[in-house]
Amino acid sequence: MNKTIDRETLRKKLEEGAPLTILDVRTDEEREEWAIPDSIHANVYDALKAGDPDALEGIDVPDDRPVVTVCGAGKTSLVAAEQLQERGIEAASLDGGMRAWSLAWNTAEVDISDSHISVLQIRRTGKGCLSYLIAAQGRAAVIDAALDPQIYLDLAEERGWTITHVLDTHVHADHLSRGRLLAEQAGAAYHLPAQDRVTYQHDPIRHGDTLAIGSARLEAVHTPGHTLESTCYLLGERVIFTGDTLFLAGVGRPDLEADAAAARERAHLLYGSLQQLLALPAETLVLPGHTGEPVPFDGEPIAATLGDVRSNAPLLGVPEDKFVETLLDRIPPTPPNHDRIVRLNEAGRMPDGDLIDLEAGANRCAIQ
């Protein structure tokens, strides 16, 4: 009986709806930070680490399906799997634990009521990053690539699409952009909002610029605030890809890579940018660049109409001065390693070695 299961195998089982139980044995604090959707929790980490042979005594897990145990790095959960095996339960530990799970992903088709245009949401469920494949007439664009480029290439090939454009909404601070690398491997044009931060070749995109993706049109909408270059992309006046400017129940933080005065100035800019987005029709579908919750393997897109977002995000309904003060009072902890990630994204460089520790931690780009 195997004692471990790797991330990709578990990901595929969840995607296929295979019957299994995921038992999270971390502390309450670690689980609150991020968890695998639909997992059950037992706060037995300390007991397992101390070698308590009865650590799982009284923990009720179904005995008619395999169990996958999970901890932070996959070591203590291995002890849990062995204890379950001793009880006659088929069990294995997630190799690499939640560290490895940060690169797990799933997808959801987005219905935009246009039979000629397809939108696929690719969700980095272990991190909360959301990226998109938009296709029409066999041509495709990728927005905010946050996973191995081969994943996007494979998804496009399976559907008969050719990736011709790769875009980022801004210079990211919580994860390494795979956009430049994907564009190189796909032979596609790489677009970044116009700015003077990056040091490598790209096609700058400015407010009002449009890109043709087959019969589809993406229009750039400059929305400074989260960063000065932040740009949303409007698809056919019915869908808006908002990056880290607007989320389904919150807005982007204005403080990363900024001192207090710059953060305040950017908060005012963000208010103006959001008013620009709120002027779009209420039925416009909002597709954000991140989510603050683990993404289930349910095939349901993370999306909402602009009207619903307005109702679910109270900050969108307050005057500018109150918006700015509230925003600055609610600044969350900064993403781990964000300084180094920003520098790497500005250089367009992927570091050598394992990226998991560099990108560790939940998404912290939103303020509600």
Walkthrough of the structure:
With 368 residues, the chain is of the alpha/beta class. Helices cover 27% and strands 24% of the residues. It has helices at residues 7-16, 28-33, 45-49, 76-86, 97-101, 149-158, 179-186, 260-278, 306-312, 320-329, 338-347, and strands spanning 4-5, 21-24, 40-41, 67-70, 91-94, 106-110, 117-124, 129-136, 139-143, 162-167, 189-193, 203-205, 210-213, 216-222, 231-235, 239-243, 251-252, 285-288, 304-305, 366-367. Strands 6-7-8-9-10-11-12 form a 7-stranded mixed sheet, with helices on one face. Strands 13-14-15-16-18-19 form a 6-stranded mixed sheet. Strands 1-5-4-2-3 form a 5-stranded parallel sheet. Strand 2, helix 2 (28-33) and strand 3 form a beta-alpha-beta unit. The chain is globular. The chain starts with a strand and ends with a strand.
Strand fraction equals: 15-25%
Reported for the largest beta sheet, the result is: 7 strands, mixed
What shape does the CA trace take?
globular
Helical residue percent band? 25-40%
Q: What is the straight-line distance between the termini?
A: 46 Å
Helices, strands, pairings?
Layout: E1 4-5, H1 7-16, E2 21-24, H2 28-33, E3 40-41, H3 45-49, E4 67-70, H4 76-86, E5 91-94, H5 97-101, E6 106-110, E7 117-124, E8 129-136, E9 139-143, H6 149-158, E10 162-167, H7 179-186, E11 189-193, E12 203-205, E13 210-213, E14 216-222, E15 231-235, E16 239-243, E17 251-252, H8 260-278, E18 285-288, E19 304-305, H9 306-312, H10 320-329, H11 338-347, E20 366-367
Parallel strand pairs: 1-5, 2-3, 2-4, 4-5, 9-10, 10-11, 11-12, 16-18
Antiparallel strand pairs: 6-7, 7-8, 8-9, 13-14, 14-15, 15-16, 17-20, 18-19
